[in-house]
Amino acid sequence: MLADIKKVLGPHFAAIPVTDGTIEVFRRSMVRSADLEQAGATRRAETMAQRRSMMYATADAFEHAIGSVVGSITSAAVE
């Protein structure tokens, strides 16, 4: 595999020394990235739930207002 990388990169190839500390930093970075991604997904889900709730509340208020107007027109027409 290292030989394949050298072929592709040619003179731009540079070996990067890897130590246990390097691997731990990389692992922590990946864990943090996954945590942030999960937190973002949770926030998006909460935001969508709030929007849905607000839409239902707006629709209910609109339905109530229209129902009152229709009721008033109906009762006026009956008289």
Description:
This protein has 79 residues and is mainly α. It has two helices and no strands. It has helices at 2-9, 20-78. The protein is rod-shaped. The N and C termini lie far apart (91 Å).
Short description:
The chain is mainly alpha-helical. 85% of the residues lie in helices and 0% in strands.
What is this structure's SSE topology?
Layout: H1 2-9, H2 20-78
Compute the separation of the termini in Å: 91 Å
Number of helices: 2
Instruction: State the secondary-structure class.
Output: mainly alpha
Order of helices and strands: HH
Q: Report the mean per-residue pLDDT as an integer.
A: 85
Identify the notable features of this structure and list them briefly.
79 residues, 2 helices
